[in-house]
Amino acid sequence: MDDPDSNLSEALRRLRHGRLVAFPTETVYGLGASAGDARAVADLYRAKARPGDVPLIAHVSGIEMARGCAACWCDAADTLARAFWPGPLTIIVPRAASIPAIVAGGGDTIAVRCPDHPMTLGLLRALGGAIAGTSANVSGRISPTTADDVRASFPDVLILDGGRCAGGIESTVVRAEETRVVVVRRGVLGPEALRAALGAGVEITDRVAGLARGATGGGVRVVDEAELGGVGSDAVVLTIGPVACGGRRIVMPTDAAGYARRLYSAVREGEAMGGQEIVIQCPPAAGRSERETAVWRAVRDRLERLTGG
Asked: What is the span of the domain harbouring residue 102?
């Protein structure tokens, strides 16, 4: 078994020398470069095959490091960071001049997040600066939740193996302003949780569109339960619980958190089974609690992305 301390030291050395490193978070694995090294960040875009105008996330060890990435750190950003960091929340704020524009896709804002994983937090503290990162998969592919998933895409990159990611889907992303917070990507932290932390003085706006059932794209299709019986035998079907269906079945957890944790690995499993398409039973729009509803909404958002809808 690899020595975690030795791997951490090697990861630190590589980051300081302009190399890429893959690291675990509580959501998915990230692929990153030192945020202050524009040349290394350019290498990250190339390795990921990511369009240059799509921003990365600056991963930080806490609020102090986040302030160093921001030209302005408003009260709303501070309140959210104190409430949810380390954790699955990315906050968009004005970019500091010290952060190369390439990290932000050439824009004047920067997305910052403090991941809840001891291995990556240790790396960030040792580095003493932010890591510009994105999910450790080639653009257009499923985000990785294990080190083996990362290795399949980036066999030559050093991977800090932190085990299977607990969350399974990417963080909630918000844009923080003085009197308004805009949700631009749903995650396990829903608007209700944000509102409870911020209080009545800050408006919460959700700009994320909903999932259209029947959406299809990229070999993935989302259907209602009533349509599952008509699915062809050459498909792989992700059902919520042991529901009757055509095709080969992967039974997904019935709880929102378990479903989210399993989603990406199940799609990868379905691809490995060689199905002509992956058909996914449309998940519920709401759960039995505000938190469960937030997770189901985040899952549906990811399905929208998977199907290209």
From this structure: 4-206
How does pLDDT run across 226-271, given as a tens digit for each residue? 999 889 889 999 999 888 888 899 999 999 999 999 999 999 999 9
Q: How many domains does the chain have?
A: 2
CB 253 within 8 A of CB 259: yes
Q: How confident is the model at residue 141 (pLDDT cuts 50, 70, 90)?
A: confident
- Same domain, yes or no: 148 and 236: no
- Residue 151 and residue 240 in one domain: no
> Is residue 184 located within the same domain as residue 227?
no
- The two structure tokens encoding residue 195: 């509102």
Q: What's the pLDDT tens digit per position in 94-121?
A: 999 999 999 999 999 999 999 999 999 9
